[in-house]
Every structure is written in structure tokens, then in C-alpha cells.
TrEMBL record:
GO terms for biological process: flower development; regulation of protein-containing complex assembly; response to UV-B. Its main location: cytoplasm. It holds the Pfam family WD40. Coiled coil: none annotated. GO terms for cellular component: cytosol; nucleus. WD repeats lie at residues 221-236, 290-330. The keyword Ion transport does not apply. It is found in: Cytoplasm, Cytosol; Nucleus. It comes from the Eukaryota. SUPFAM superfamilies: WD40 repeat-like (SSF50978). It comes from Trapa natans (Water chestnut). Keywords: Cytoplasm, Flowering, Nucleus, Repeat, WD repeat. This is Uncharacterized protein.
Length: 422
């Protein structure tokens, strides 16, 4: 994958597909409800949207001559507003060099947020403290400005820069796993604020992604610059991993995600421009290959039981059918050619969120390939200077008619957006 900078830049390898795998028996089988995955998985200003998206459009009528119906045009069915900005009042321009946010994660109760990045800190925020008591308006001037020093509940210092965080299931939001630039995966007990579990199996190469299964006891997986996915039993500190998967011909693994709905699929995104699906019950070869991106696949997220969304440095997102590995839709509008800019899906609302190297956050509706809303960070009054990019995003997974999106930038600032269905 080549050298990756502290700003999460991604280089494109020149490689061909070659698969090898070293697999040991999992310490326990997936739960009984896990079935055959192939059948059971299935210039615009800030806060403005493109003029054509301001108007709700009715379903297009048939063209004259009995031709096919015109495709329905994208429309925004949500009112989004910037609720608060979390930044450093001491020196907002210094954050771009020292505090780029590479990852944002809501806990399973959707009440707390964890962030990590260049600053070698895991910061824990209460969502109530970021939203409670503050007015939310249509203009950026109505957003609450909060200093980092008073915004977070607490933080934990880490030995290396962080690229990935994931709350451990069934831990009551007490344990969080972190992947770092030194190739180490560490679990932290947040009540005692100490590391309790560590794995160092990637030969010092950066760990880009960490995830857990959603059955008990959990299995963990990490993807790294070394071109491997290490799958391990979370109950066994330091013991040999239960499987090593090498998708592609040694291309860096940028993203790993287990099916959050309880299925047997592990999705893997690689720098060889492909994404792969593995059956965790037999991690020998992929059961599906998602091929269609022109550059490295930086993120993969399950949208529902039958759909996966991928992001790439080719500047587009793609929605894939798990049933037949087919591209359902391609989403274009944001700018992404070299950096990790984040990807998150809000499953209840069918919305996709991502950052952009144009220093904007974008929202897509799964039904349309054009963005329905965007917000420019460079115009926020709380941040001085220009440049930078939106480096991480995360949706809160609750509600149906209201939503919360948190986005972080290379300036080290957090923006919290709220949305209401019209």
C-alpha cells in the first residue's frame, strides 16, 4: 500500500488477485440463527443543498410514446442543522497538525461518543453534554461553540496514533478496542481507564480497522497494512489467532466489518480495489468478491441484511447486493482521491454519510446517486484558516424521524448535526 501519511492518505497498488489463507477452528460456532449468507444476507454554501434538491418531486410521469418512466430525481426529505462545534479555543489552527480525527464511534446505547486520531488519545463524550441545553438553528451562528477541554467526560492516553475504534459488544459500553499505527490492537477498560488486552500480530504495520462479532462470546478481527486480516478470540490475551486471511496479493487491508445483524459474513475492503466477503465458519476463500472500484476500497459498512456500502479513493460510494455481488447504485458528489474521509450509514433512515477532501460533509439517500445535503466546514466561524478535509463521520443508530450525525475534521474539531424528517 505504500507509505500512508498521518492524514490517512491512501495510495493505489499495482496488484492482481491472489488468495491464500491460514485457518484454525473457531473456538465456538456461530449462533444457531446464522444461516446460509447467500440466502439470508441479503459553488454551494454551508448547510445549503443543490437548488434542484430543494424541491420535492412527484413520481415522474410516463414519457410520451409509451417509453419507460423517467427516473425519480433526488430530493432531501430532511431538515439538517449544525447543533454544536467542539474545538480548541487556544489555537484552532494547530489542530490540523496535531489532532486530526481519524475515527468517531457511538457506543451501543447511542449515548456516548468515542474519538481517536493523531493526538494519541481516546476521548469519551456524553452526547447529552454536546446537545443538551443548546439551541439548534438553521444558521451556523446558532450552533453552540464548546471547548475540547470542557466537552469530553474523560480521555485515555495511548502509546501510538489511532486509526480505528470499536466498542466491544456485550460489555455495557465498558470496553473499547483500538487499532494503532504501531500495528497493535488494544482493549481498554473505560471504567478503570487502563488497557486490559493486547495483540501484536501485524509485524508493526498500521492497523486500519478493528471490529467484533455480535454474538457472545465475541470474536475480533483486525485489518492492516501487512495485507492480512487477523481473527482472534477475545477471551485469549496474547494467544495465537484463530485465523489469518490474506485477500489479494498482499495488498493492504483498509476495512473489516462483521455482519451486525448476526449473519456469518465478514466484509473486507482492500487496497487492490476490491472488497471481499468471507464466511466466518470457513475462512479459506471469499464467498463473494465486490469488483468495480477504480482505486483502493477504504471503508465497508452493512446497510441492511442484504446490502453493503463501500467507499473508495476513486471518489464514489457503491451499494452492493450481497445476494449476487452486484452494484445496485453508485453515489458521486464528494471529493476523495487520496485520504480516508470516513463512511457511516444510518440504517433506520437509509442515509449514508461521508467526508470530503473539499472540507465538506455529504449525506446521500440510498435511493439516489446524488447527494441530498452537504455542509462546508471551512465556513464555520469557530475555525480559522482554510484547507483541511472532513476525516471521519458517524451516525447515531436510533430513531426514525430524527437523526444525529457527528463529523470530525483534519482540524481536530467535531461538528454535531441534527436532522428532522419533513
Amino acid at each position: 500500500m505504500g507509505a500512508l501519511t498521518d492524514y490517512w492518505s491512501v495510495s493505489t497498488p499495482n496488484c492482481t488477485l491472489s488468495l491464500s489463507s491460514t485457518t484454525a477452528s473457531l473456538p465456538f460456532p456461530p449462533p444457531p440463527h446464522v444461516g446460509d449468507m447467500n440466502h439470508h444476507l441479503p459553488a454551494i454554501g454551508p448547510t445549503q443543498q443543490p437548488p434542484c434538491l430543494d424541491r420535492l418531486t412527484e413520481t415522474a410521469a410516463l414519457r410520451t410514446g409509451g417509453l419507460e418512466p423517467e427516473p425519480e430525481r433526488a430530493r432531501c426529505e430532511w431538515d439538517f442543522a449544525l447543533a454544536s462545534i467542539v474545538s480548541s479555543s487556544s489555537d484552532s489552527t494547530r489542530g490540523a497538525a496535531s489532532d486530526t480525527l481519524g475515527v468517531i464511534e457511538f457506543d451501543h446505547s447511542d449515548t456516548h461518543i468515542a474519538t481517536g486520531g493523531i493526538a494519541r488519545k481516546i476521548r469519551i463524550y456524553s452526547l447529552r453534554s454536546l446537545l443538551g441545553g443548546f439551541g439548534v438553528g438553521e444558521d451556523d451562528g446558532d450552533a453552540a461553540i464548546i471547548d475540547h477541554a470542557s466537552a469530553f467526560d474523560y480521555y485515555i492516553c495511548t502509546p501510538a496514533k489511532l486509526s480505528s475504534l470499536r466498542w466491544k459488544p456485550q460489555s455495557g459500553s465498558r470496553v473499547i478496542g483500538a487499532g494503532d499505527y504501531d500495528g497493535v490492537v488494544t482493549e481498554y477498560d473505560l471504567e478503570r481507564r487502563v488497557p486490559t488486552f493486547e495483540r501484536d500480530e501485524h509485524g508493526g504495520r498500521k492497523v486500519w480497522s478493528v471490529d467484533y462479532t455480535h454474538w457472545d462470546p465475541a470474536v475480533g478481527a483486525s485489518g492492516s497494512d501487512d495485507g492480512t486480516v487477523q481473527v482472534w478470540d477475545t477471551r485469549s490475551d496474547g494467544e495465537n489467532c484463530v485465523a489469518v486471511v490474506k485477500p489479494g496479493s498482499g495488498a493492504a487491508v483498509c476495512s473489516v466489518e462483521f455482519n451486525p445483524f448476526g449473519g456469518a459474513l465478514l466484509a473486507v475492503g482492500c487496497a487492490d480495489r476490491k472488497a471481499y466477503g468471507y464466511d466466518v465458519r470457513k475462512l479459506v476463500e471469499p464467498v463473494m468478491v465486490f469488483s468495480g472500484h477504480a482505486k483502493p476500497v477504504s471503508y465497508l459498512r452493512f446497510l441492511d441484511t442484504r446490502s453493503v456500502v463501500s467507499a473508495s479513493t476513486d471518489g464514489c460510494l457503491k451499494l452492493w447486493s450481497v445476494d449476487d455481488s452486484r452494484v445496485v447504485r453508485t453515489y458521486r458528489g464528494h471529493v476523495n482521491s487520496r485520504s480516508f474521509v470516513g463512511l457511516s450509514v444510518w440504517r433506520n433512515g437509509g442515509l449514508l454519510g461521508c467526508g470530503s477532501e473539499s472540507n465538506e460533509v455529504y449525506v446521500y439517500d440510498r435511493r439516489w446517486g446524488e447527494p441530498i445535503w452537504l455542509h462546508g466546514f471551512k465556513n464555520d466561524q469557530a475555525v480559522s484558516g482554510g484547507g483541511g478535509f472532513v476525516s471521519s463521520v458517524c451516525w447515531r443508530q436510533t430513531g426514525e424521524d430524527d437523526c444525529t450525525l457527528v463529523a470530525g475534521g483534519s482540524d481536530g474539531c467535531l461538528r454535531i448535526f441534527t436532522g428532522q424528517r419533513r
